[in-house]
Design a protein that fits this description.
One of its GO terms (molecular function) is glycosyltransferase activity. InterPro entries: Glyco_trans_1, Glyco_trans_4_5. This is Glycosyl transferase family 1 domain-containing protein. Pfam families: Glyco_trans_4_5, Glycos_transf_1. By secondary structure, the protein is of the alpha/beta class. Helix content is 42%, strand content 16%. It contains 18 helices and 15 strands. The strands form 2 sheets. An 8-stranded mixed beta sheet has the order 2-1-12-11-10-13-14-15, with helices on both faces. The chain is globular and about 70 Å long. The protein starts with 11 loop residues before the first helix and ends with a helix.
Length: 469
C-alpha cells in the first residue's frame, strides 16, 4: 500500500525536496482559456522512467537481492552515449536517466549529441549542466576525440534510429571496429525511420533494445519487408518509474500539497474532476481527438442530466514560445465549441509529478501504432490514477483493460467509446478508486526502477559478452 507520513509530518529532507518541487511547479507557465480571452498563470514541472527483457530472460519481472545494485558490474566501464538530439522529448531524457543510473555505480559516461542548433539553446544548456553535475562528460559529436572515445569505449549506446547517421559521418573507416560493441536503443514507431540512411548498420551491432514487444515485432517485420535487412539480437525492456517519482507518489502529504497548489493555479476546485493528457502536443499524440471526445462527454452529461462534479480537460505539453498550427487548431476547437471554461492548456514540462498529483484520470490517446511504451502511463498508475488509453502500441502492455483502466480504438472510431469512458469514470468514484489501486499494484509488481535496472543489466551483460568474444 502507499506510504503515509507518520503523524502528518514530513522529514526535513522531504520538506526541502517538496519545497523545491513546489517552487519548480509554480514557475512553469500555464496557459488557459477564461471567458473569451486567453490568460496565463504560473505552475509546474517534474521527472520520469521503467523495464522488461525478452531474449535474455523472457518471463522475468525483474529482481535482485535486497541492497544489491544489479548494474554494479558496470563500475569503471567506459560507455559512450550518442543521442540524435538533446531536448525534453522522451528519447534523450530516457538516455540521460540511464546515464545517471550507471554513474551511480561508477561507470564513466561520455555523452555526444549528434544534432545541435547553431544558436544557443536554453534547454540544451540546462540539460548539459545537469549531466555535468552528475559526472557525465559532454563531448563534441565530431572530431578525433569522438573517434578515440568510440574506439576505447567498452560499450557504445546509440539512442533512437536517427542516431545511426553519426556512425558513418564521424567514425568513417572505423565503423566496423565499433559495431560489435554497439547497443542500439530504439524508441520509434513511425514508418519514415525505416530508412537505410539511418539503420543500414543495424544488422551488425551487438544488439537492439526496444521498449515494447509491439514495437520490437514492428521493427522485425518492417526492416525485413521494407529494407531487406535482419534485426540483430533484440531485447524488449519495459521502462520503470524513478525512485524520486515514487517517493512523491507514495507520500500522501506531498501529494495533497501538490494537488492543492496546482489546482489553485489552474483555477479549479478540490472536488472538480480533471481528465488530463500529458504529452508533447502533436496530431500523433491525439490531443485533438481527446478534446472532441471530451466535448461529446460534456454533451452526454448535459443531455442525460447526470449528477457529476464539474469536469475539466487538461492539455499538458504546449509550447508557449512557439504556437504551432496544430495547437491553434486545438484552441480554435475549444473556442468554437464554447468550452473555454472547461479546458486548461499547460506549458510543456520536464516535471510531471505535480500534475499527476492534481488530476483524477490520465488519458493516453496516442494514435496510429500508439506509443512505443508510454512512460507517462506507468507514472500515472504510480499516483493511483486510472488510465484511458488507445488500444495500440505499448499501452496495451501496460494497461489491463477493465482493471487498471479502459482501452478504446485509435482514430475516429475511438471518439465515442472514449467519451463514454469519460462519463463512466466521472460518475463512478468507486471505479476510479479501484482502477487506481490496481494500477498502483501493477507498478509495484513490474514497473519500478529496480525492475528496469535489473532487466537492463541483463542486456548490458550480454552485449559486453559479445563485444569481448
Amino acid at each position: 500500500m502507499p506510504k503515509h507520513s507518520t503523524g502528518g509530518l514530513i522529514s526535513v529532507q522531504k520538506r526541502w525536496a517538496l519545497m523545491i518541487l513546489l517552487c519548480i511547479a509554480l514557475s512553469t507557465t500555464i496557459a488557459f482559456f477564461i471567458g473569451s480571452s486567453a490568460n496565463s498563470c504560473n505552475s509546474a514541472d517534474y521527472g520520469k522512467f521503467s523495464s522488461r527483457i525478452d531474449a535474455v530472460e523472457p518471463e522475468s519481472s525483474g529482481g535482485n537481492k535486497k541492497g544489491e545494485n544489479p548494474l554494479h558490474f558496470m563500475n569503471s566501464k567506459l560507455v559512450l552515449m550518442v543521442s540524435h538530439e538533446l531536448s525534453l522529448s522522451g528519447g534523450p531524457l530516457l538516455l540521460m536517466e540511464l546515464a545517471f543510473l550507471l554513474r551511480a555505480v561508477g561507470t564513466r559516461i561520455v555523452w555526444i549529441t549528434n544534432q545541435k542548433p547553431t544558436e544557443p539553446d536554453e534547454v540544451i544548456h540546462s540539460l548539459e549542466q545537469r549531466m555535468a553535475d552528475r559526472g557525465v562528460k559532454v563531448s563534441p559529436a565530431k572530431g578525433q576525440e569522438a573517434v578515440d572515445t568510440a574506439l576505447k569505449a567498452d560499450l557504445v549506446i546509440l539512442n533512437t534510429a536517427v542516431a545511426g547517421k553519426w556512425l558513418d559521418a564521424v567514425l568513417k573507416d572505423n565503423v566496423p571496429r565499433v559495431l560489435p560493441k554497439v547497443l542500439w536503443w530504439i524508441h520509434e514507431m513511425r514508418g519514415h525511420y525505416f530508412n537505410l540512411e539511418y539503420v543500414k548498420h543495424l544488422p551488425f551491432v551487438a544488439g537492439a533494445m526496444i521498449d515494447s514487444h509491439t514495437t520490437a515485432d514492428y521493427w522485425k517485420n518492417r526492416t525485413h519487408e521494407r529494407l531487406g535487412i535482419k534485426m540483430p539480437a533484440t531485447y524488449v525492456v519495459h521502462l520503470g518509474n524513478s525512485k524520486d517519482l515514487m517517493d512523491v507518489a507514495e507520500d500522501s502529504v506531498a501529494r495533497r500539497v501538490l494537488r492543492e497548489h496546482i489546482r489553485e493555479s489552474l483555477g479549479v476546485q478540490k472536488d472538480d474532476l480533471l481528465f488530463a493528457i500529458i504529452n508533447s502536443v502533436s496530431r500523433g499524440k491525439g490531443q485533438d481527438l481527446f478534446l472532441k471526445s471530451f466535448y461529446e462527454a460534456l454533451q452526454l452529461i448535459q443531455e442525460k442530466k447526470l449528477h457529476v462534479p464539474p469536469v475539466y480537460a487538461v492539455i499538458v505539453g504546449i509550447d508557449v514560445n512557439s504556437k504551432t498550427k496544430f495547437e491553434t487548431e486545438l484552441r480554435n476547437f475549444v473556442a468554437d465549441k464554447k468550452i473555454m471554461q472547461r479546458v486548461r492548456f499547460v506549458n510543456k514540462t520536464l516535471n510531471v509529478a505535480p500534475y499527476l498529483a492534481s488530476i483524477d484520470v490520465l488519458v493516453q490517446n496516442s494514435q496510429a501504432r500508439g506509443e512505443c511504451f508510454g512512460r507517462i502511463t506507468i507514472e500515472a498508475m504510480a499516483f493511483q490514477l486510472p488510465v484511458l488509453g488507445t488500444a495500440a502500441g505499448g499501452t496495451m502492455e501496460i494497461v489491463v483493460n477493465g482493471t487498471t483502466g479502459w482501452l478504446h480504438p485509435a482514430g475516429k472510431d475511438g471518439l465515442t467509446p472514449l467519451a463514454a469512458n469519460i462519463v463512466q469514470l466521472a460518475m463512478q468514484v468507486e471505479t476510479r478508486t479501484r482502477m487506481g489501486n490496481k494500477g498502483y499494484a501493477r507498478v509495484q509488481e513490474m514497473f519500478l526502477e529496480h525492475h528496469m535496472s535489473y532487466r537492463i543489466s541483463l542486456v548490458l551483460k550480454e552485449v559486453l559478452r559479445k563485444a569481448n568474444s
